[in-house]
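Continuing the series of single-chain predictions for the mutant panel. This is the parent chain; the variants come on the following pages.
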Amino acid sequence: MLNNVNKGKVAETTAICYLNLRYSIIDYNYSTRYGEIDVICLDYEANEVVFVEVKSTSYLNTLAAVELFTTRKLQKLMRTLQMWLASTKIFANFSYRIDLIALDMNYYHYSVKALKQYKNIEYF
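Parent structure:
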């Protein structure tokens, strides 16, 4: 059975594969002392930098993945993305948004039961 770190890596890899079909991946697992951003990508159609948080649950867990995203996590994410934007001047003219990828995973079979992307979770 996978431990929580490995479950997170499987979920993030799944999310990156999904996002890569829609956006250009810029970075992933960007971390500062304030927190971590799971995936950073570029939405050319919307001219936006998209900061993505990945949350997952297993078939043994009844708590929905979206419920795992807390106000505290959003605050940490906001501080971290501000640092990323300040250090990456090339995207200064882009707006940004925060998305959540919620996964319901069956880790025993390495399969995805459900994947949902919530856009603009800052206003969720």
